[in-house]
Amino acid sequence: MTTPAAVCWRDNRLELLDQRRLPREVKYLTIRSIADIERAIRTLAVRGAPAIGIAAAYGLVVAMSAESPPDEAPEAFRSRLDGFAARLRRARPTAVNLAWAIERVCRRATAEASLPAIRDEAEAIHREDEAICGAIGRHGAPLITPGAGVLTHCNAGSLAVSTLGTATAPMYLRHRDGMPFRVFVDETRPLLQGARLTAWELSRAGLDVTLICDNMAASLMAAGEIDLVLVGTDRVTRNGDVINKIGTLNLAVLCRHFGIPFYVACPSSTYDAATLRGSDVVIEERGPEEVLGDHAARVPVRNPAFDVTPATLVTAIITEHGIARPPLEAALIGFMGRSAAGSARNGERG
Ligand code: MRU
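YS: structure for the whole thing
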């Protein structure tokens, strides 16, 4: 059974799988305006770094078509687009793919201020992402050996990206080859992307999946059940620091203690060569209601949605160009310097 696509673009119509309803219900939202796409990103109807970027690129096309005046001058076209872009960029601050995809669409409009041109750019971003997932899968698959126990966190699967996902791509390919291995999925408090999304998509695809609470990882590692941890990322900074869903740092620290490899799957659209280190990244702080639910005592809450895993705790980063091993900064620049997200933001040509 295949996972429903997170982002659907057909005949100039943008539909987003409403991930807030999963796994109970598979329902799509139709995006008709800038307000629709902004709300979908902010409220996590669409989520996951690459999927947010793809959705935003198409969202700009929809917003521009919805209010397109006849015979609009190129300058007016660009200034309307810049206004929408600024609005979308603020929707979520941490995943670099959002700013990167918006920047690509705006740069295209600098060369060619027309609806067909920006639509073509959004479609290219989407197609490239699908190819990148396949390449990450091929490079990462050998890291999963027969009988291995793989632990993953949050959702870096098809729902967060396209087709094979990033962290899940090596798993999907190994499964397709008929290799036996187990995947342990962290629940991922507070929004349960692991329990609701990753466990759902991997089990539908027939993988051997076991769900655990976030606080069980150490005891499974101590029992020898985990051979590697494999996660996605929302941004990797120039030096190889990894920003990912809150709780990722816990896993990296545990891996160091237990001598377990800690791998990160990162497409070039998520490598931010323009930001030097993880401490320079804005970490999104979300509302208290996500943590409180209806069971907790009504006390003050902290809810940072992401954390920073220092490069020193990362065994290797799986990119579409190959596996980057320490020293990570040199390896990442070597692989992705010119195609990295930061390059596009700086206006460098890839
Ligand atoms: O807040 P979300 O659900 O958008 O966060 C997504 C993540 O942090 C995922 O873990 C993922 O690894 C990054 S997307 C491939």
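YS: worth flagging: The CA atoms of residues 117 and 204 lie 37 Å apart.
IM: good catch. Also The mean pLDDT is 95.
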